[in-house]
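Issue: copy button drops trailing tokens. Both records pasted manually instead:
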Amino acid sequence: MTTLRLLSPLSGVVRPVSEVPDPVFAEGMVGPGVAIEPQHVQTQTVLAPADGVIGALHPHAFALELSEGRTILVHLGIDTVGLAGQGFTLHVDGGQTVRAGDRLVTWSPVDVSASGLKTICPVIALQADPEALTLLVADGATVRAGDPLLDWV
């Protein structure tokens, strides 16, 4: 397989996925990855982390189908499915081909936090071998949307 560079889908502070307050993500049940604690702003834009096709799509989460059968999942906040899309605006449709850096979703970390939910965002390489991922940013570092985040071999 070729090495695939994944960009940060949003701006914030990089955290280990083990710090996500949801065992499905924290324990790697769906795959390895990293988490981003978003900037506490009223409106934030989420970008495509790589070239691909939008697979599963919800206001609070999306799966991006990449080359060579790989899929990346980006989940905006924890338990945000309960918001039923409120505070999230989709800019793409399922099945749409996107390029790295394309705008996919806008959301409000401030509103999510105000509703009592955690804003941390898991970025997960679905079904990947943990050794296949290389984090390109140190834990605790701040990234901007579009910055290099992970290499996936």
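Record 2 (pasted manually too):
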Amino acid sequence: MSPYYKITDKTMAILPYDSPKNTSKVFEADQEKTLIFKEIPLRIIEKNCLRYFSSYTGRRAAVLYHEPHYKVKTPIPISSTKGIIAFPTQGPSRIDCAWIFYHHVAKITERDGGSVVIFKNGKELFQPVSKKALSGQIVRCRNLGYIIDSSEESESSISANLLELQEEFMTIRIGKNPVSAKK
């Protein structure tokens, strides 16, 4: 398996890089330099979906199950448990498609010929896409985040279940009979 870029909560954007090798540029929250990788942005997204135990196709199908009207430029939850959600700026198979990680976006402003994505760390990224289109993608990601949060079990119920299992295991291991103890 060849090395590839591993998406984390620090990933802000994955952009196509204009080179004969179809490479990508990656912006991270704490990196001063732009990182360069040999794979196109969509391949990086696909490999990271697999890294987080699903496929790109499966993640997209799950989004469409919950939000059937997100068929075009579908936002993708790379990792639903870590809250990592990215959206494409174009159709994902287009060579000029960039992927923006919405939780890093502070605001979007209009500029001639497109928009500027202003990230929470102050970095700016011009995209030849309208402010309305990018803002709509942010809203979709936020809605998707709410759907994911409301569909997963809360940590407190998981913790309570684990405590019950641990207590049951300890009772069995110690040799007490829970039925006779109740009499």
